[in-house]
């Protein structure tokens, strides 16, 4: 422990754990569990991994309610007062952050819609995730991602060694018993999945066809696999339970999916041009940001003869700047997001043991005070401690953007590449700006800072990944995994509507660049295909898989009741 995290201290104050269980003879049950914590501090000094994490006002609450003829109700809530974090790797600060009043609520939803004659035409099983926070401030370096991976590997190695030592002390009997218990749980879950899939297609199950294929032949997109598994489980519930009936109309459908929504009042990210003590950095700031991700999947016939079944998935990502309830034109004309280049002055000095609050105030708070973005208009604030050289590169007004993607994948994967039809992801992107986007006057000179900074972040991580020495066997295994992870989908943009008005920050009117020139200067070429593809791979696919994993746990629990 001393080599990994040095001298480690964990202090916890005023923790309360409460539980409530209500059962009756009619198989109705209500289980709730809550945990409150006033303060928690974790400090590590002198090791390879060091830093401080402080949590105030933690609340964890869960509730599960089940009645005989009603669908289950599951609710989970996680709430913090404030989180402050400072992470160091090899005595180098790599991350400093502060999270104010974050809150996360997860609920499930079971619904069925019927026609006037009483026949059910739609059954829905959804998972909803709602998150919000007041303020999120972060400072990162170009080595943050690579060093975080090293920290995770170091901690995993440390805990594995501790488990091995515990095995030697306590003996192997306890661990053998635990392994047998895990095997029994996995076998029972596999049996549940097998029985579920046989209800849909008894002769040839999709899960059997997938298991018969090796990793190199799994050419289909991954989203169809996990949604197919969940659709089969929900179908089993519809057959065995009464609270979610099967649609009986000609065009009846069963939908599964979820919603992820985050509402943020303020977000600030400082990307240092080097280490934490670098002389310049880029600051990204947003206010009144709202993101909404929705996904819906269903079974669909892929041919007119209704012989081939596929999974149809529709995803939608909505990003907004500006409060939706405020329709004042002056509100929309305000700057809701800003990108700045910051250079500190000569008298700026940040010591190694400076607190998290002082670091964030010096590198983010003082910059926002100079831009009059630190607080709402009319609020009194203290003057900035440091006067930095701040150059605004971009100013964004209130906006509404929507990215919609639709993809359909067959349930069964073809063995032959010649018979394989590449999945097509059809996308539409619409962005409406409520005012002009402002850019720096000397655009060619000033915008070069941002692409070079972002390139240094990506190149730094790539160099670390390629520079690591691995045995030939591990390199071959990594190459096989990379081939399996290749995205063979074809991306087609059906509609692209992004046409903001461009204005210079200092109000000059002549020769304003168009949005295509701005993206080209940022080294984003063929943006009508590149941006939807990056959003699909980096955000939509991961959000879709996260919802699928959580929803599968909820559905399996409901199936066991």
TrEMBL record:
InterPro entries: BLTP1 (IPR033616), BLTP1_C (IPR056742). Residues 472-486 have a biased composition (Basic and acidic residues). Residues 208-220 have a biased composition (Polar residues). GO terms for biological process: synaptic vesicle endocytosis. Residues 186-200 have a biased composition (Low complexity). It comes from the Eukaryota. Signal peptide: none annotated. Coiled coil: none annotated. GO terms for cellular component: presynapse. Pfam families: BLTP1_C. Residues 186-220, 461-486 are annotated as: Disordered. Residues 1-557 form the Bridge-like lipid transfer protein family member 1 C-terminal domain. This is FSA_C domain-containing protein. It comes from Bursaphelenchus xylophilus.
